[in-house]
Amino acid sequence: MIVVVVVLIVDILTLPAASLASAIALTVIVAIGAVFVSAVAIGALRRQSWVRGGALIWQLVQIAIAIGAFQGTFAQPAIGWALIAPSVLVIVLLFTSSVMAALARPQA
To answer: Transmembrane region positions (predicted)?
Structure first.
């Protein structure tokens, strides 16, 4: 996601945009997503319990994007499969007993 933010910033600075406001808004939204994914990754490394919810939300967002990649005039099924396959795998893994135990809240 951070790479996508950098690419979008470079595009804004080097290419003429049909709508500069839309380009900036998209870049800001992707930057917010990058911060969210980074926070979930850091939380996972620290084995914090809230990570499962954040990871699940991100996987659902990826599935929604993947479904969009299968449809429309500019459909890219390869991108859709590349997004949906790991998302489904991660969702399944999030509910395995080993992951749930690793990310469980410590008992007082």
So the answer is: 20-44, 56-75, 81-104
